[in-house]
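hey so i finally got around to running the thing on that chain from the lab meeting. sorry it took forever, my laptop kept dying and i had to restart like 3 times. anyway pasting the input first so we r on the same page abt which one it is
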Amino acid sequence: MITENIIIKDWRNVDFSFGLIYPNTYKIGMSSYSIRLLYHIINSYENIVCERFFLPEQLKFPASKDYSSLNNLRSIENKILPTEFNILGFSLHFENDFKNIYWFLDKVNIPLYSQERQKSKTDENKHYPLIIGGGPAITSNPMPLSNVFDVLFIGDCEPNLNAFFNSFEEYNKNKLSFQELLQRLKTIEGLFIPSLQNEVKRVALKNLDESPIPIFQLLSKNSSAKSIFEENFFVEINRGCPYQCKFCISSFHNSPFRNRSYNNIIKTVEEGIKYSNFDTISLIGSCVSSHPKFKQICEFIIEKGKRLTLPSIRIDHLSPEIIRLLEKGNIKTITVAPEAGSDVLRFGLGKKISNDKIISVLSQIRDSRIKNVKFYFLIGIPNESDNDIDEIINLIKQIDELGFERNSLRININPFIPKLNTPYEKEVNFYFEKNHRNLLEKYRKLEGELKKLYSVKSKFENFKVILKNARLQTMISLGDYKISTLLINHYLNGAKLVSLKRTQKELDFSVDDYLLKIRNCYSPWTF
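ok and heres what got predicted. didnt touch it at all, straight out
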């Protein structure tokens, strides 16, 4: 494994240290634009050293039963242990990674509960790093991690990182008390201090050009394993989404929709090509095709001889001209998200794209050199009926009949997860225990019908496990302080789905009762 553009600083020449943690494996973490951006921004401060941490491939929960070497958790750059850093910052994107945070802290003997750490600092003069976190999962709802973190960033980090570092530097140099630090931090907009329960306003960077795309970007070359995106050069062209789909956190937690200027993007691409070695450029954004200069950006990248990759793209943005352009960019697979099989249900979600439009666009893709299409569908959507499952099957059958090659249509079926602070945050009906069978039957029907189709490749896993995971994710997404305690106890019990019921019994907690509270308009937190 070769990683380009690593920054290694002399610890003797800095004021304090920052351990940047993606709570998953190296391969997944290095495919995150957030890690590259934060690494670049934090290391741009001459008096701060920022080094990265990722998790081993295999974890055993809890960490007390994991006998892997502690050396696996040394920083990438200088091989420093996490406990030797002044600040440990977690970038959190997915609820499934929460248990990995507990494992990381537990493995290096940092108490999981922030109150316990604060008490040890005060009573025993012990040193622990300041534990902070941010990212989409935190902005959506910080409550499930409120017992663990000292400070949580709500929204974009760029507007308040400087004020945060200034406050920490003053605390560090002047030997202020930890409580004095927290009191100062709570005055910074966008910082939530769980122990102080301060009201917080989500922060949004108004001008995306003020977020610096790293030119000397971390790039990993690994010939021995299939890469994800860690070898690609990332260019964030917009943030947020203009379409306000009711289930989507980007539309509501990352608003307003902002585009980076065309000149800034072109300059970044030119400098990236000059200073870094890569073959592929990945455009980053929740809706990259909504950039007013999307076509020109793609054309410029192709003219520079670079391959192009895109996230999911809106079907109604795929004109014949854009499809031809993506062919030139050597794109092998287009990813689209119809979400539902019927116009009525899809329009109800806020995604106003008809089946006729989907079929028309897919016909154009079939006639192109782009041979693979990845689809994302949801089940368990609010107001969904059994007939809506038939509509998914009918739509996919129509697409199959267009004459795609074998296994070129890759279908992903996922349970809908309600997210706090979105219009669908109260839509929990499918996660009551009595409704599990209904979702299970829908999934089995889809499995039985879709596996018969020539061009369809579907990965149908054990849906009972998928459904239990989705219920846990829903509970986390909508959770409060009690959920925070539940999650830590669940981790200590092995973090397996089978141990969740045992944990609930120990705490006298009912998921159904909690979901009923949510449906009856209980809101654990709002920004």
